């Protein structure tokens, strides 16, 4: 598998640890995890195991951000390496995150 | 069995392909032709410089987009963009983006306004489709030799200074990708270009091009290639970049489309009057 | 303990529903209001009322320490009783917070505000006092309290009414008449919500108000785009400004589209290849004396010299309106060059075909270039030399004596004095000696043109009226126009001139005569031609057929001439002399008296009048102001200095008895005054700076 | 071309009914026939009811008739002027020239 997701639930916080690459072939793996966040207050996406992300992957993260409003949780991103950070910054992902009261930790 | 043009018939032929596969393939080919005609349309010709652009899709059809639009005031509006995703969905959104650019370019005063207008026009659709487009829009004014640009989440173009012999990114300017948030205000930034300067707009498919060993082409190689060929005309630089990528990837299948647009300033400054607004070739 | 959460349009409804579900009476439950219903600015945002209803134990007293004082259920009943109708604008905070549990002795006789509600505790010895600030209404048992302060009791029911203010978003899109700019004016809507601020318990409190302003900018992108569409705005949108306007919290104006303004071109011009500077007169030396030897020599050219190059106009660049229509640049006017004497124009070059002083006279877009010949008269001009009439410059090295006349189409320069003579020049007049008892005029032709212009104004006005009248007549159903083809307009003209435009022929006559009298100075044939046409039309009784087209054409020409006469001439002529005595000076441009001054002389300056010395007696006029060192005479000879209403008079020392006239207002100095700067104030009276 | 008919009224007044256009062709009739015929009355009323058009010569003619009759002591009145003709008279200020009371 090119992408694995580890789910860890602590009370009202869910941590999703993403390992491998998020691209067009793997977004269908991560999306179901995000869909089942009802009742969660905080969802943390941990990217420390991320190898590669493409624009479809960014699209998935945007979906997560939009979902956070719908399902009323706070989305936090962590473990972003420098290269991914550059990409996120370029496309303006952080501004969107901020607009939806999410944060980077 | 009920047959009409809308129904694909599952029936293996001798090659092992279903008829549906063949029909689909033909239609994708048609779509690719349409897209390539739209992309490789007219390139404006004007005094004081030249532009050129090209795009190679990773699959049969791609989601990258570039365009030129001559404005009534004699400027050329250039846009380059990368639609999220690949293949047919991305190609469809690319056509949508092109329409939004064409109508916005016609009516808006500056690149920033064009991006704002495009975001206003595309936001709802892109949200519904859970997609987005990164765009970089620039106005080249042959009269004053200034390049004014605005950015919606795209990577910054490379600026090859003809005189100083250096390659660097254009001064940074931020902006959220089109389809990210509604009611976005984009900002313009201007730089003065000089004789023999080249601006290289591209999508990240170039620097992320991979060879069989999963190594990336990287910005360093691109800069190197541009430096080596900077004195050439835009068509030749384009060809050299493409050749360099091909040589590096050795025909390995690519994950992303490869697109570039070049603008080069040439010294033959003709007198600019209202009459020599750009002509279409 | 059984409890449910119930919703309703308002609190009452929510409670009613809840009680029904619990099958309980109001007295058996504890009611907690979780959410007050809100009528929001937007219907979408309105909230339902939510209450939590808990069925009480048998003995609710344990939970309700205040039971003895005031049954909360009863209190609630009272509140519910006073819940405003859904339609009413007043907001009452109904949240029944658990009452603070202070020690009763501490609070006795005090009043306080907690969570926006007014509370009090009476005491047998003291009644708490509440002061009502402006803008707050307090009701006691539904009766408005009109006093500034009131005594609060806990047996009455009090309601505090605070007003909310709402204003809707107002916006409009304005396009300027040139369609170059579209502005969006916006005043975002807002809602001001007021609530009572908590106040510590005290025997006397003043209610304090908290004000919250929320902005509701309801402007939508689509509304703006629809409006722009309606205005047919297609081009030059500032999308960023539209988005900013949608976000605006304060009233503002946003330029949401702008066109491209046309870039004006350059009118045609003459580029001189030689120095034509002739304006520089004698210079004053440091000790205040005038050195005439410093006078700049006037340039001369040999025949064949290219004097100037005529440049065609450079057209401007058209602009574009926001409605995507081209906006033409202002029309550029070519310069029309008339070749005078000694000048040939080949292609775009002005070439001297005679030697002499190049002379250029420019009025707006018409320039006349000629070569002035120069006559140098070595001695005096007197009976033995005879009068001088010369089509060029005249330089007299000696003096001009009694009754002699010099008439020059160029400049006149006299090295010595001018005595009882007449000097007339189309150009400038310069003398190195005094002028005594003489008539001197410079720029004669310009003065005539100005004079003719004054006549042309009313003539053309009348002529336009006559033409309009005739056109009206020909269109009227009761008028038989067939005779025009035979008899022309003459019979009609006779009626009109005799009866309706009686002063008109007299004006025409004056014009024709002025032109005839000054034929020599009017080099342009157009003056004579118009005079002839006017005379034929209105002065002769010839039965020659005249057509309306001819009259219209003449009217156009007159209008043009009138406008031309109003234009300043470049360069203008001037008179520069050291002293002048008992003479008359007329000049279309500046008059400068450099020496001791002017005595008993009449001066008319079409430009500025400057007298470095004294002005003693006489009447002087400066069209562009007067600057005089010393004015007035000991002998009380009348001294009058006049300028038009829009000009100023400067006098370093004005002796008593000196008169000044600005416009039509006159002032006489009754005592000597220094450093006078006089002008006409906005009330039309003479003021001094 | 114009025609006229005359009818005597009380007090030495003659009423003239004009019929046709008052124009350049009317000059002879008006000057040579009408004018002499009216000279001996105290007052003359010119009825314009049947005059549909006037031209500039006609107006000159009218002014001439009124003035010469006035000189001879004949009081002239003009009546029943058609609206269109009245408009032309007013453009040229004929009522001001002849005196407003001339028109009835």
TrEMBL record, chain A:
Gene3D superfamilies: STAS domain. One of its GO terms (molecular function) is anti-sigma factor antagonist activity. Residues 3-105 form the STAS domain. InterPro entries: STAS_dom, STAS_dom_sf. This is Anti-anti-sigma factor. It comes from Domibacillus antri. The lineage of its organism: Bacteria, Bacillati, Bacillota, Bacilli, Bacillales.
Automatic annotation (TrEMBL), chain B:
The keyword Hydrolase applies. One of its GO terms (molecular function) is phosphatase activity. SUPFAM superfamilies: PP2C-like. Keywords: Hydrolase. Transmembrane segments: none annotated. SMART domains: PP2C_SIG. Pfam families: SpoIIE. It comes from the Bacteria. Residues 46-265 form the PPM-type phosphatase domain. Gene3D superfamilies: PPM-type phosphatase domain (3.60.40.10). PANTHER family: STAGE II SPORULATION PROTEIN E, STAGE II SPORULATION PROTEIN E-RELATED. This is Serine/threonine protein phosphatase. The lineage of its organism: Bacteria, Bacillati, Bacillota, Bacilli, Bacillales.
TrEMBL record, chain C:
SMART domains: Jag_N. InterPro entries: FapA (IPR005646), FapA_b_solenoid (IPR046865), FapA_N (IPR046866), Jag_N_dom_sf (IPR038247), KhpB_N (IPR032782). Residues 5-56 form the RNA-binding protein KhpB N-terminal domain. Transmembrane segments: none annotated. PANTHER family: POLYMERASE-RELATED, RNA-BINDING PROTEIN KHPB N-TERMINAL DOMAIN-CONTAINING PROTEIN. This is RNA-binding protein KhpB N-terminal domain-containing protein.
From TrEMBL, chain D:
This is Anti-sigma factor antagonist. PROSITE patterns: STAS (PS50801). GO terms for molecular function: anti-sigma factor antagonist activity. PANTHER family: ANTI-SIGMA FACTOR ANTAGONIST TM_1081-RELATED, ANTI-SIGMA FACTOR ANTAGONIST TM_1081-RELATED-RELATED. The lineage of its organism: Bacteria, Bacillati, Bacillota, Bacilli, Bacillales. Residues 12-104 form the STAS domain. It comes from the Bacteria. NCBIfam families: ant_ant_sig. Belongs to the anti-sigma-factor antagonist family. Signal peptide: none annotated.
């Amino acid at each position: 598998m090119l992408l694995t997701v580890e789910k860890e639930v602590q009370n009202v916080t869910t941590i999703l640890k993403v390992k491998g690459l998020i691209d067009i072939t793997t977004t269908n793996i991560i999306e179901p995890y995000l869909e089942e966040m009802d009742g969660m207050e905080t969802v943390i996406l941990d990217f420390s195991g991320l190898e590669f992300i493409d624009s479809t992957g960014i699209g998935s993260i945007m979906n997560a951000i939009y979902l956070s409003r719908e399902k009323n949780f706070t989305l936090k991103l962590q473990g972003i390496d420098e290269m991914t950070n550059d990409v996120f910054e370029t496309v303006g992902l952080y501004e969107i995150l901020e607009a939806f009261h999410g944060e980077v930790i | 069995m009920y047959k009409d043009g809308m129904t694909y018939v599952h029936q293996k032929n001798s090659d092992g392909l279903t008829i549906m596969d063949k029909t689909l393939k033909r239609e994708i080919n048609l779509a690719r032709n349409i897209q390539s005609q739209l992309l490789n349309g007219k390139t404006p010709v004007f005094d004081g410089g030249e532009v050129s652009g090209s795009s190679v899709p990773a699959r049969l059809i791609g989601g990258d987009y570039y365009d030129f639009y001559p404005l009534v005031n004699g400027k050329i509006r250039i846009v380059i963009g990368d639609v999220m995703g690949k293949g047919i969905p991305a190609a469809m959104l690319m056509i949508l983006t092109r329409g939004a650019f064409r109508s916005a370019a016609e009516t808006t005063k500056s690149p920033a306004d064009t991006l704002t207008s495009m975001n206003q026009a595309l936001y709802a659709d892109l949200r519904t489709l859970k997609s987005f487009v990164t765009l970089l829009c620039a106005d080249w004014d042959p009269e004053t030799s200034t390049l004014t640009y605005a950015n919606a989440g795209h990577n910054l173009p490379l600026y090859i200074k003809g005189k100083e012999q250096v390659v660097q990114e254009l001064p940074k300017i931020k902006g959220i990708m089109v389809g990210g948030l509604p009611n976005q205000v984009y900002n313009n930034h201007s730089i003065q270009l000089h004789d023999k300067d080249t601006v290289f707009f591209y999508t990240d498919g170039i620097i992320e091009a991979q060879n069989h060993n999963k190594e990336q082409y990287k910005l360093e190689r691109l800069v190197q290639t541009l430096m080596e060929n900077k004195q050439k005309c835009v068509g030749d630089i384009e060809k050299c970049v493409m050749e360099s990528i091909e040589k590096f990837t050795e025909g390995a299948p690519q994950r992303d489309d490869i697109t570039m647009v070049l603008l080069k300033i040439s010294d033959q400054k003709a007198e600019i009057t209202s009459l020599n607004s750009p002509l279409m070739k | 303990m059984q409890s449910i959460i119930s919703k309703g349009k308002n609190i009452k409804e929510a409670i009613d529903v809840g009680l029904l579900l619990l099958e309980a009476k109001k007295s058996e439950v504890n009611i907690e209001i979780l959410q007050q219903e809100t009528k929001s600015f937007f219907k979408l945002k309105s909230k339902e009322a939510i209450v939590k209803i808990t069925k009480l134990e048998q003995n609710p007293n344990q939970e309700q320490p205040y039971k003895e004082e005031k049954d909360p259920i009863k209190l609630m009943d009272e509140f519910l009783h006073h819940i405003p109708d859904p339609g009413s604008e007043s907001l009452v905070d109904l949240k029944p917070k658990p009452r603070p549990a202070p020690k009763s002795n501490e609070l006795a006789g005090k009043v306080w505000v907690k969570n926006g509600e007014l509370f009090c505790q009476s005491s047998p010895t003291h009644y708490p006092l509440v002061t009502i600030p402006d803008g707050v209404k307090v009701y006691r048992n539904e009766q408005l309290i009109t006093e500034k302060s009131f005594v609060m009791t806990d047996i009455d029911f009090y309601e505090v009414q605070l007003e909310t203010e709402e204003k809707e978003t107002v916006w409009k899109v304005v396009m300027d008449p040139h369609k170059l700019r579209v502005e969006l004016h916006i005043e975002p809507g807002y809602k001001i919500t007021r609530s009572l601020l908590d106040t510590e318990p005290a025997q006397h409190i003043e209610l304090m108000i908290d004000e919250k302003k929320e902005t509701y900018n309801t402007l939508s992108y689509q509304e703006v785009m629809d409006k722009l569409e309606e205005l047919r705005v297609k081009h030059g949108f500032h999308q960023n400004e539209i988005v900013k306007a949608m976000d605006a919290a304060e009233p503002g104006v946003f330029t949401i589209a702008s066109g491209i303004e046309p870039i004006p071109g350059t009118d045609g011009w003459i580029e001189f290849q030689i120095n034509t500077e002739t304006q520089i007169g004698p210079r004053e030396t440091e000790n205040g004396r005038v050195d005439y030897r410093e006078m700049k020599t006037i340039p001369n050219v040999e025949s064949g010299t290219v004097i100037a190059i005529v440049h065609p106009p450079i057209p401007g660049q058209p602009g574009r309106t926001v409605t995507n229509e081209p906006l033409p640049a202002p029309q550029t006017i070519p310069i029309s060059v008339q070749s005078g004497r000694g000048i040939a124009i080949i292609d775009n070059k002005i070439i001297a075909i005679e030697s002499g002083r190049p002379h250029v006279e420019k009025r707006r877009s018409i320039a006349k270039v000629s070569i002035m010949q120069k006559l140098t008269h070595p001695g005096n001009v007197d009976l033995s030399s005879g009068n001088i009439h010369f089509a060029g410059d005249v330089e007299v090295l000696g003096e001009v004596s009694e009754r002699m006349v010099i008439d020059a189409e160029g400049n006149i320069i006299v090295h010595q004095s001018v005595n009882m003579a007449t000097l007339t020049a189309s150009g400038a007049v310069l003398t190195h000696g005094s002028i005594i008892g003489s008539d001197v005029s410079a720029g004669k032709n310009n003065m005539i043109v100005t004079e003719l212009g004054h006549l042309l104004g009313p003539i053309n006005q009348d002529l336009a009226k006559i033409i309009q009248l005739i056109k009206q007549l020909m269109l009227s159903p009761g008028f038989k126009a067939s005779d025009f083809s035979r008899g022309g307009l003459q019979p009609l003209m006779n009626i009109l001139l005799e009866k309706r435009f009686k002063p008109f022929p007299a004006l025409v006559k004056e014009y024709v005569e002025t032109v005839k009298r000054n034929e020599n100075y009017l080099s342009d044939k157009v003056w004579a031609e118009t005079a002839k046409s006017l005379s034929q039309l209105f002065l002769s009784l010839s039965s020659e057929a005249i057509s309306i087209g001819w009259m219209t054409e003449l009217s156009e020409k007159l209008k043009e001439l009138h406008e031309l006469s109003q234009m300043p001439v470049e360069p203008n002529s001037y008179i520069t002399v050291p002293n002048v005595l008992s003479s008359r000076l007329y000049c279309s441009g500046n008059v400068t008296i450099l020496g001791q001054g002017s005595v008993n002389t009449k001066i008319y300056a079409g430009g500025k009048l400057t007298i470095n010395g004294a002005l003693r007696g006489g009447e002087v006029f400066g069209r562009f102001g007067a600057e005089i060192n010393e004015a007035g005479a000991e002998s009380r000879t009348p001294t009058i200095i006049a300028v038009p209403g829009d000009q100023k008079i400067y006098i370093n020392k004005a002796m008593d008895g000196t008169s000044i006239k600005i416009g039509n207002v006159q002032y006489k100095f009754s005592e000597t005054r220094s450093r006078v700067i006089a002008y006409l104030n906005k009330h039309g009276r003479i003021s001094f700076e | 071309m114009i025609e006229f008919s005359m009818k005597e009224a009380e007090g030495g007044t003659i009423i003239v009914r004009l019929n046709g256009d008052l124009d350049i062709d009317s000059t002879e009739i008006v000057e040579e026939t009408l004018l002499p015929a009216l000279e001996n009355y105290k007052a003359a009323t010119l009825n314009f009811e049947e005059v549909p058009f006037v031209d500039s010569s006609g107006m000159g003619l009218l002014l001439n008739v009124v003035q010469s009759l006035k000189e001879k002591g004949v009081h002239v009145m003009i009546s029943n002027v058609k609206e269109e003709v009245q408009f032309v008279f007013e453009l040229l200020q004929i009522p001001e020239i002849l005196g407003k009371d001339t028109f009835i």
